[in-house]
Amino acid sequence: MSTGQPRKTKAERRDEAREARKQAEQSDAAAAAKKRRLWQLGGIVAIAAAIIIAIAVVTTSSDSGGGTQSGTPNGAAEITELFKGVPQEGLIAGSKTAPLTLVEFADMKCPVCQKFDVNAMPTLIRKYVKTGKLRIELRLLHFLDAQTPDTTNPGDSEAAARWVIASGQQSLGWNAAELFYYNQGDEATAYSTDSYLTWLGTAIPGLNSKQALAARSNPKITAQLALNQQQFEANGFTGTPSFLLGTTGGSLAPLAMPSDVGDASVYSDAIDAELNK
Amino acid sequence: MSERRLRRTIGVLTLIGFAIATYLTIIHYSGDAPLCLASGGCEKVQSSEWAKLFGIPVAVIGLSGYVLIFISLFVPGESGRLLTATLAIVGFAFSAYLTYRELFDIKAICQWCVGNAVVMTVIAVFAAWMLIRGPDTEETDPDLAEA
Asked: For residue A216, what is the domain's CATH number?
């Protein structure tokens, strides 16, 4: 009985087998290549994860690494650039003809002040001070010395404040204050030593570090600190940072403490409102 | 989808991401507040301590990433696919990390950053697809079948 299909010759059967083997080899090669590519993808994902973990670890450890001398102080170049072309007189920065003045009462070791001065202040300086719309004034206190006394250096906060005010005598007070905040350490430990302040001072171009350290004991600075404390209390402030905002040379009014002191937009809104009056 | 079309799609997405990163870089250096639909979120993110990594604005890092991805699209073969996928997946991971910081540390959302993260995510998906699928075959590229 015939099936209707011609019988394949030996050569045809051999060709078919060769073709089948070739296809199987190609299929195996494709599967191996795909497996290799999946391994490559896995490797890439692992590399990406390792990079992000490294960034997270480094940024987290640098957050808690303030108050220690290591390499160049954080933010040194950025702060120099920030105050480039900004006139300074004592701890007042900005044009004398600026229509508004913002006064900040702060303690150099206060972490909330640091949050404001590192996160919000640079934006305000770029947006308002550099454009001649705002003058900023820093009035320093040292109440943290009483609240978080460190037996190794009971006047650590005052030492920092005196150094910043002394740097202001060289018209670099705001540079000193911002640099200190960028490198601020734990408020409960003492670190504002001569060595530490010298390390910071060398990262401020134009600052005579020795002169700034020597000027800290100047009676004028003692008087300035006392006056700042009086003004702080007279305005009914109880914590830092606290702010006064108003017309330059005119009356200044307390600015309500925002829920997030590091949010520059809150201050921008208040400044814009005053400018539009 | 052919590899050529995948590369073109990634190229277009890279240009969109590049435009966003350029805008954020300009805003960073000008000190202006970014245009933001919600109140202040963008300015808060831009002025936060997370807006820089090792002193370099993250907008500049993003800008560089897009430039490198775009260049990698011109590298032919498996090396090109591998390079594009590596850059895109690292970029995606970095965007995810920054989004985490926005949500849990800064507690504000910047639409420009979210837009950037979405673009980078789509680029990473396409780049990973391009890597896994390998070179074009007659099935994926009709031009090869014709040839």
From this structure: 3.40.30.10
Model pLDDT for residues B59-73, shown as the tens digit of each residue: 999 999 999 999 999
Asked if the structure places residue A141 within a domain, the reply is: yes
ipTM of the complex: 0.83
Which A positions 48-77 lie with beta carbon below 8 A of chain B?
48-49, 51-52, 55-56, 58-59, 75, 77
Looking at the fold, whether A48 and A179 belong to one and the same domain comes out as no
Q: pTM for the full model? A: 0.59
Does domain B3-135 fall into CATH 3.40.50.300?
A: no
Q: Quick one: A25 and A86 in the same domain?
A: no
Q: Is the peptide bond before A241 cis (omega within 30 degrees of 0)?
A: yes
Q: Which residues of chain B from 40 to 79 reach within 8 Å of chain A, CB to CB?
A: 40, 43-44, 46-50, 52-55
- Nearest chain B residue to A265 by CA distance is B40
